[in-house]
Amino acid sequence: MFSSSQLVVGVDIGSHSVKVCQLKRADKAYSIVTLGSVILPEGAVDDGALVEPEMVASAISNLFKNLKIKNKKVGISISGYSVIVKKVNLAVMGEKEMEDHIMTEAEQYIPFDIQDVYIDFQDLKTNKDGYERTDVMLVAAKKEIVDDYLNMLESIGLQATIVDIDGFALENTYEYNTPKTENVALIDIGASKMNINIISKGMSVVARDIVVGSRQLTERIMGQFDLEFEEAEALKLGVNPPDDKDKELQEIYSAVCTQWIFEVKKAIDLYHSNFSDAPLSRIVLSGGGSKVEGLIDYLYQETNIEVEQFNPFNNMKFSKRKIDPKYLKQVGPEMAIASGIAIRPSAI
Question: Which of 3, 80, 115, 348 is 20 to 30 A from 273, comparing alpha carbons?
Answer without folding.
Answer: 80
